[in-house]
Design brief:
homodimer; alpha/beta; Arc Repressor Mutant, subunit A; D-Maltodextrin-Binding Protein, domain 2; 3 domains; 3-stranded antiparallel beta sheet; 12 strands; 38% helix; 20% strand; DNA-binding
Chain lengths: 298, 298
DNA sequence: ACGAGCGATACCGTGGAGGTATGGATGGGC
DNA sequence: GCCCATCCATACCTCCACGGTATCGCTCGT
């Protein structure tokens, strides 16, 4: 009748992840017998068997699978609630913006300036992180708002598109295509492409990269190439060149924030960011993303 | 250090909703002193003041506001996890579909037939409910999948559009516009329109309706009129007539399900539904929703 | 000024969470 | 084939904390 206790669910999740009571108990910092009891009690309350235990192996039932998924989400939500309340509670409230190093489309300074000129602006902490970590930080309540690229998993987040950019290939200086004025995806067929950590896996093979520096280094070494939004141009290290990719799908940069957490500060910030993006779109023409570029006339 | 307990959060939410410890305690079925202590302990753990109490009035702090919002969501997620696990656990698994009485766009029988002809189909329970209850039932784990109309709040849900329909005005038989072959929104200006319970409030005034029967009755009584999707035609009671509304925005019917709960059965069902909708779109022409109608040539 | 309403405090009893010791089953090693 | 390691369940104990009752202190309405 009474709702579940978070502790019980956390215990179950630990067991379900380890598939081993002793290890799970160890991880939780408790002894194994209380853990066995707690899980059994959870099963009794739900009236459902969650784990099939032989004395040798633990496996998840269908119900267990469901509770593992949903329970994790619920626990995350609870932890995020706590963190957000804590952050909202301390005076001198901050807005934490998370982006990756080359992921701001070159608009970050402008967005920050626009927001800071708002009358009710509060301080903004900018947090740079590796690829794919943004959504995690947003969901967990560490960050309030993020600038994202690509097609990350956005469940639990609200978002708005900011900027559509054409894409460029980043190549080592002595690459066979480095001299070209433009290339197509067909030209790049067979090139190694990095897997961006945290992105939805799209089956491509290649080195896994976590931040822009790594990526640039790998490209300079000739170990991979990359297709990036036009705005990445400004971040190129010395030995790299970039070439427009004519037929690459445009890359969308968006601003995202935790679902339904529209605090006044957040709302103001989102509006400031979309305003900046709108101004930039007007300045650069309605159909294009980043500033005027040679794709327009092709 | 340790994560929050669900009980504490539930207690806090009750107090925050009532803004009165005694009433909240009563609602929770406990005495007032333990509730005071629990909330205070929660505040101590978070290191944040959630409630400003004078001995006369209780108000929420900013942090309290945040925890009220986020905590409610987290508790919902926890309860939903429990219910879904329970449902997944019982043998003879069912898929619970929720729709409102006139909300299926006339496709429900066809969708059910399509799904049931799938090799791995399981039993489908169809649950009819009042306007705006679908999203609640989906989020709370009572239902697995729903057919929705209008623009309900879809946070926490994934969805796919099924069908775009033109809209018709439903009028009492002796209404001044009842004889018209078609009307525009301007014609209907000033008419009473119902407020659909659970929809986002769009400022309209009028009686609040919870189900189709109520609505039809109110229309027949001349107390209100309504703009409904074309497919509602089939559900009209005796004394009502309907007239196409030429310039009403098309109404989108969609299928929605809890975020990230793509069980195999659900995935199959969603695919069956989208297939049916796709076939219908092809049958009726690419630009329109419900079957061919006089709007095409206007 | 007094009483009603409300939250905080003090104190107590019990249920349950967690610990230790141990049993019972299973599978791998020799 | 025997034995031991592994692993989950059971039994039993301890103690904290959750909930209850009684009461205080403050505040506002009359």
């Amino acid at each position: 009748m009474d709702g579940l206790e978070a502790r019980e669910v956390a215990y179950f999740v630990a067991v379900a992840e380890e598939l081993n009571f002793s290890r799970a108990a160890n991880r939780l910092g408790i002894a194994q017998p209380p853990l066995s009891r707690a899980v059994k009690q959870l099963e009794r309350r739900l009236g459902v068997v969650l784990l099939e235990r032989t004395s040798r192996r633990v496996t998840l039932t269908a119900a267990g699978q469901v509770l593992l998924n949903e329970g994790r989400r619920a626990l995350d939500a609870l932890a995020a609630a706590a963190r957000r309340a804590q952050r909202a509670g301390q005076q001198d409230p901050r807005l934490v913006l998370v982006t990756k190093a080359v992921g701001d489309g070159g608009m970050l300074p402008e967005i920050l300036a626009a927001y800071e000129s708002e009358p009710d602006a509060i301080k903004v902490d900018v947090l740079f992180c590796g690829f794919g970590e943004q959504t995690v930080l947003l969901r967990s309540g560490v960050a309030d708002v993020g600038l994202l690229h690509g097609r990350p998993d956005l469940t639990g987040l609200d978002f708005e598109d900011l900027l559509v950019e054409h894409q460029i290939a980043v190549l080592p200086a002595r690459h066979r295509l480095a001299g070209r004025a433009a290339v197509t995806l067909a030209d790049l067929d067979g090139e190694a492409m990095p897997r961006f950590a945290g992105m939805r896996h799209d089956g491509t093979e290649g080195p896994e990269v976590h931040d822009a520096g790594q990526l640039m280094q790998l490209i300079a070494m000739g170990r991979t190439t990359a297709i990036l939004p036009e705005s990445a141009r400004g971040y190129l290290a010395g030995d790299l060149v970039c070439v427009p990719v004519l037929d690459a799908p445009p890359s969308t940069m968006m601003i995202a924030w935790p679902e339904q957490s529209r605090s006044p500060a957040l709302a103001t910030f989102v509006r400031a960011a979309t305003d900046v993006a709108a101004r930039r779109r007007v300045r650069c023409g309605p159909d294009s993303g980043y500033d005027g570029n040679q794709l327009r006339d092709s």
